[in-house]
Amino acid sequence: MTDEEVKMNGTQFEGKEVYVKDVFTEIAGYYDEMNEIMSLRMIQGWHRYMMKLAGDIRGKKCIDIGTGTGEIAFLVKENAGPEGKVIGLDITPEMLKYADMKMRENGRPEVEFVEGDALDLQFPEGSFHLVTSGYMLRNVNDVQKAIDEMYRVLDHGGKVVVAEMATPDNRFIRYFYNLYMKNRVQKIGRKYDKGEKIDGKMPAYDWLVNSIKGFPHGEVMAEKFRKAGFKDVKAHSKNFGAVNIYEGTKE
């Protein structure tokens, strides 16, 4: 893996925060369906693995950062039980609207959904026993700051579990992965985003696919968690490296 293949802070550009917020506002209504397609229908298994890494969280206070439509937050709540409290935080109100709708209309577990910025969490230090996040880090302006904030709001003895997509390192696997992303994901995405540029930049699913390319993963990303202060950091590669799940503890 060359330096060119791994952007240490992901893809950054002027106006990224506004653009990303506008992207997720646009795709909120079909976000869950496209996540299933992008993950080869494996996303629920990834989330169950995250809960396995989280351990016993019954009765604990937890936060899912970049919660989107709340899928991980709902699963955390199921594991935290009636006495547990779960907050799902996202910067995009439209995504939270769909999360809240699923909770009210589909009988999902009760989660408190709040609007907020992953780079500036409005919670005191040590507020949560578990911090989770899924597929958010490549969408922020400062990956390290987002991880630092996760560490800050986590209580001593608490755990972080984060999932993020990646381009497989194996050249053979990467070839077929890229074909799938280009010929399947982006083409299906066109049905929804119509190929229309957002804020004068690329269409929504061009961004979601291209943001994965070269994004730091594996030990490169694990080192960012260690830099934030996390101990016992591990990077778990799933589905030939298409997703990496990171865990760490705050002593």
Automatic annotation (TrEMBL):
Instruction: Give GO MF terms, alphabetically.
Output: demethylmenaquinone methyltransferase activity
Please state what class of enzyme this protein is: transferase
Q: Which domain of life is it from?
A: Archaea
Which residue ranges does UniProt annotate as crossing the membrane?
A: none
The family database entries (CDD domains) matched by this protein are listed as: AdoMet_MTases
Q: Which reaction does it catalyse?
A: a 2-demethylmenaquinol + S-adenosyl-L-methionine = a menaquinol + S-adenosyl-L-homocysteine + H(+)
Q: In which pathway does it act?
A: Quinol/quinone metabolism; menaquinone biosynthesis; menaquinol from 1,4-dihydroxy-2-naphthoate: step 2/2
Give EC number(s), comma-separated: 2.1.1.163
Q: Which UniProt keywords apply?
A: Menaquinone biosynthesis, Methyltransferase, S-adenosyl-L-methionine, Transferase, Ubiquinone
Q: Which GO terms describe its biological process?
A: menaquinone biosynthetic process; methylation
What residues bind S-adenosyl-L-methionine, as annotated? T69, D90, D117, A118
The family assignment reads: Belongs to the class I-like SAM-binding methyltransferase superfamily. MenG/UbiE family.
Q: Which PANTHER family match?
A: 2-METHOXY-6-POLYPRENYL-1,4-BENZOQUINOL METHYLASE, MITOCHONDRIAL (PTHR43591:SF24), METHYLTRANSFERASE (PTHR43591)
| NCBIfam families assigned to the protein according to its UniProt record, in alphabetical order | MenG_MenH_UbiE
Described function: Methyltransferase required for the conversion of demethylmenaquinol (DMKH2) to menaquinol (MKH2).
In its UniProt entry, what is this protein called?
A: Demethylmenaquinone methyltransferase
**Which organism does this record belong to?**
Methanomethylophilus alvi
The upper taxonomy is: Archaea, Methanobacteriati, Thermoplasmatota, Thermoplasmata, Methanomassiliicoccales
